[in-house]
Design a protein that fits this description.
The chain contains 17 helices and 9 strands. By secondary structure, the protein is α+β, with helices and mostly antiparallel strands.
């Protein structure tokens, strides 16, 4: 991806090159039991796992006994579309979730194989309103998958429900952003990864609008401009990535991406993470900048706890991996002026800048492609520069004990 350093092979970026005894990524099987890779301990994906468990109840009970779901869907009930309905009784809340929230979210999913299978799995009534058995939905969902396992309920269902949960969380995040900034967007193209929402066009438009692509943009490497970080699009790119790089001060909403990172590492993808050293003066200044002009700007520290939480999540991910998987995950901290945030997948990147009073992920994102394009060179060279500045964890699982040592390497006294 071009974030290399001076070590390891010259044929692959230093951030992600494996040791010489590491197997070729093509030899790493992708047939991983999803129930094993998702049941990791610690801070990883609690909300995602809870939501997947609730969706498992939904696909079994929604068509034949929806009343049994009352009081059993706390995670779905906490999504913005539900809470914004105000104080309603439990039966009305379940009806809202089953008849509005889930169908509308399913409509907003992209058109890949997994998403088509998810729609089949969660269509508990046919066009005539008759209940469809779970077995029937298994068969319909399997049609969309390549080499679908014969034991669909044990292998494919958990994977699809986890994917559905992850995407629902991303859509909920988009809805919350749109509610926080409900102004009408400028006219422009709509990203293929974000469809309209029936009955809620303003929210959908605010979350999905992007600027149109011009010939000059294409020549510069710019693909499109997104209103904020498009998590659904990012998850799609990560699903088949050979290399993933994330550069930020810390990674807000890492819970949306953690399952996808585990899957990527399990199939042999190289993952490189760059975050700001949490105890640096620059981290304190960024925390103050996030407060904008408010009087509380010096009181709330967001960067330091944000970085430390991300390190705990990444350590929990590392604990789920074998030795080869851990070698594919590399994390460095930098102590330098944060210039841009980058979510890079192979030769494509979504990048933004650090503004006062606003997280980079909630700012407009410029999507670029091609490391040799004008904007691609800018982004990937900055990644390479900060990677070389950064100090790497030798054992991510022991990040707390290594943090002071990294500070000493930066010349920060304790």
């Amino acid at each position: 991806m071009g974030i290399g350093g001076t070590d390891d092979y010259v044929s692959r970026p230093a951030s992600s090159r494996p040791p010489s005894d590491a197997p070729d990524r093509r030899s790493v099987t992708s047939d991983v039991d999803p129930t094993q890779i998702r049941r990791y301990a610690g801070a990883v994906s609690v909300r995602s796992c809870d939501l997947a468990d609730e969706l498992k109840q939904v696909i079994r009970l929604a068509g034949r006994d929806p009343e049994a779901l009352e009081g059993e869907l706390p995670t779905l009930s906490a999504l913005h579309r539900v809470t914004s309905a105000g104080e309603i009784d439990e039966s009305a809340r379940v009806h809202l979730i089953l008849q509005r929230l889930i169908p509308e979210y399913l409509d907003r999913l992209p058109g890949g194989r997994d998403c088509r299978a998810i729609r089949e799995l969660m269509t508990w009534e046919d066009e005539d309103g008759e209940s469809q058995s779970l077995t029937t939905r298994y068969h319909k969902a399997a049609v969309h998958l390549v080499n679908a396992a014969s034991d669909f309920g044990r292998r494919q269902e958990p994977r699809l429900l986890a994917e559905c949960a992850r995407r629902f969380i991303a859509l909920d995040y988009e809805d919350r952003l749109a509610a926080a900034a409900p102004q009408a967007p400028a006219a422009g193209a709509v990203s293929a990864s974000q469809g309209p929402v029936a009955g809620d066009g303003q929210v959908a438009a605010a979350a999905a609008a992007v600027s149109p692509l011009t010939d000059a943009d294409a020549a510069s490497g710019i693909v499109r401009v997104h209103r904020s970080l498009d998590y659904n699009l990012l998850l799609d790119y990560m699903a088949e990535a050979e290399e993933i790089v994330i550069l930020n001060t810390w990674i807000p909403e890492l819970n949306i991406l953690d399952d996808a990172l585990v899957e990527a590492l399990s199939r042999g993808t190289y993952v490189s993470i760059l975050m700001l050293y949490p105890d640096s003066q620059i981290a304190q200044l960024r925390s103050q900048a996030l407060q904008g002009s408010t009087q509380a700007r010096v009181r709330e520290d967001r960067v330091r706890p944000g970085v430390r939480h991300c390190l705990e999540v990444l350590a929990a991910i590392a604990r789920t991996l074998d030795d080869d998987g851990r070698r594919h995950l590399r994390v460095r901290l930098y102590d330098s002026l944060p210039s841009i945030s980058v979510y890079g997948v192979d030769d494509r990147a979504l990048f933004s800048v650090f503004l006062h009073g606003q997280l980079a992920v909630t700012s407009p994102q410029i999507e670029v492609q091609g490391q040799d394009s004008v904007m691609g060179r800018l982004v990937f060279r900055e990644l390479e520069t900060l990677w070389e500045i950064g100090q790497e964890f030798k054992d991510l699982e022991q990040w707390q004990t290594e943090l002071d040592d990294i500070g000493r390497r930066f010349g920060i006294a304790f």
